[in-house]
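To illustrate this point, we now present one chain and its tokenised fold:
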Amino acid sequence: MQNNGIPIIVEDSVVSFDFDRYETYLWKLLEEKRFGIVRSMYQFPSAVMMPGEVIENQEFSPRLVNSKLSIDVMIAAVLNTSKVFIFLKSMQHAYVITWQHLNYEMNREKEKYTIPVELWSKGLFCAVYDETVKRWYRGKILRFLRGKQKDKVSVYLIDFGAALTTSRSDVKLLPKEFADLKQQAITVALNGIQQVENTKEHNSLVAKEVVDEFTAEPYYWLKCWFLPQNDAGVHEVILKDENIAK
């Protein structure tokens, strides 16, 4: 006799586990957002983020749009001048504290946060190790590579806007205590940058090169004025570098 819910088989008063139905049962629980039951099925050292759970996006005050008020921001990453990721200076302290604690926990207990095969999925919020700087960051799985790179995964760094391709062994479950801080990377577009004539480029490459220079120095703060959203649903901004005058 089979239990229609829990994947067990009962025959002659003997209860056994139905491994064929286990993964289907697991993902049914995740779809129903019964995360507590899923966590209890694994021996994690603490509560961790499950597939389907979300870390909210950082926002700025609507009062800043079309106002004379500016705030200090850092350019974290640049895809093009229509997609720039900024980081609010007002959140620097909260982020640094979270980042330091994350690195301490992952360096101490990383093997205990190994992702079970059944839980690997696109959109999973995770902890990812950047081998180039020897640091852990918060991330979100974008895609799994194929072919000769099938052991690698592309992860979006939610606090910086950049993507990192790394080995699966460098991607771990994210303890929930590090999910309270919102995703710090805010997507904006630079105001007034026009498409270059007679090219397929959507933005001026010169403008992008100038903006890229601001990402070279950590915590290089710029004044930022927010404008209404463009047709792509992204707020345009005006950035001003006042550091030169100091």
